[in-house]
Amino acid sequence: KAGVTQTPRYLIKTRGQQVTLSCSPISGHRSVSWYQQTPGQGLQFLFEYFSETQRNKGNFPGRFSGRQFSNSRSEMNVSTLELGDSALYLCASSWTGSGTQYFGPGTRLLVL
Amino acid sequence: DQQVKQNSPSLSVQEGRISILNCDYTNSMFDYFLWYKKYPAEGPTFLISISSIKDKNEDGRFTVFLNKSAKHLSLHIVPSQPGDSAVYFCAAGSSNTGKLIFGQGTTLQVKP
After folding, report:
1. Which of A47, A77, A79, B59 is the most exposed place for a label (fewest CB within 10 A)?
2. Residues B18/B78, Cβ–Cβ less than 8 Å
């Protein structure tokens, strides 16, 4: 069974631009969670989607948003990029959201 | 408010010996805990988990111990191998959310 995939793997943007990242969960998994990893803050939860609905949200500004499609694939969007948004963005999937989450390889975003 | 803490940023052990990684948490609502292994610029890889109704779970060389009264868990790796060298994260979750709270990570180095 294929693992979690994320595209693109690397991205360079400039301040003020917006970006969309994509995540395809493990087949059959209905929950997709997104995390941001930075050297200073570690791994922080952004939000979780289950059956196309945002079920939980972390402490991030409204510039960070997401959505989930009927096939459980998910996208996250960051608008008006800031230098501090440079990070590794990880998505993880699980059957229901509870229990083990399996992570993708991440998207490395660099904001210049 | 750091709900999950890994107080040792790094640990160095000799090949063949035991590695013990520790994690403390503050939120009594957590009802499952996981350990992940991570290499730079990659997604975390799931290692082992434990439910709050258990005090021990074993999988090959990896054993996780949970002490609920002390709000403490530990990961034991026996015997340690050079390929185990990586950053280890503990994470905690509640069954009604898809949100994991991560510790800051411990870098394990296993010397040949």
Report:
1. B59
2. yes
Distance CA B15, CA B17 (A): 6
Task: From chain A, pick out residues whose CB is under 8 angstroms from the CB of B101.
Answer: 45
d(CA A35, CA B43) in angstroms, rounded, equals 10
Taking the Cβ of residue A100 and every Cβ of chain B, the question of whether any pair is shorter than 8 Å is answered with yes
A12 falls in which pLDDT band (50, 70, 90)? very high
Of A109, A47, A94, nearest to B99 by C-alpha is A47
Cβ of B49 within 8 Å of Cβ of A55? The answer is: no
Chain A CB contacts of B43 below 8 Å: 4, 6, 90, 92, 103-106
Point out which residues pair with A67 in neighbouring strands. Answer: A75
Q: Name residue A83's beta-bridge partners.
A: none
Q: Above 70 in pLDDT, residue B33?
A: yes
For residue B92, the chain A residue with the least C-alpha distance is: A99
How many residues would you count in chain A?
Answer: 112
Rounded Cα–Cα distance for residues B90 and B10 (Å): 14
User: Which residue, among A88, A93, A95, has the nearest Cα to A103 in the 3D structure?
Assistant: A93
Q: Read off the pLDDT of residues B94-106 as tens digits, 9 standing for 90 and up.
A: 887 789 999 999 9
CB contact under 8 A, B98 and A97: yes
Q: Is the peptide bond before B82 cis (omega within 30 degrees of 0)?
A: no
Q: pLDDT tens across A57-110, in order?
A: 999 999 999 999 999 999 999 999 999 999 999 999 999 878 899 999 999 999
